[in-house]
Design brief:
55% helix
């Protein structure tokens, strides 16, 4: 299981960018990612699979520039 913060840093993403890629929207995107990184909110299985795919090189069309 990838460490969410280490994965985000390795991918060069901000908390907002990572949150959007994990399916969050609205004004609390950054807070949701912060809570996941702190261990206060668990990753859903589909989010874990997305992070693993991103670390393996997968890039969706909406990947941040």
């Amino acid at each position: 299981t990838p460490d969410p913060k280490a994965a985000r840093v390795k991918l060069g993403l901000t908390q907002t960018q990572m949150g959007q890629l994990l399916g969050y929207s609205g004004e609390h995107v950054r807070q949701m990612v912060y809570e996941i990184e702190q261990g206060d909110k668990p990753l859903m299985p589909c989010q874990r699979r997305l992070i693993e795919a991103y670390l393996s090189g997968y890039r969706p069309k909406d990947w941040p520039k």
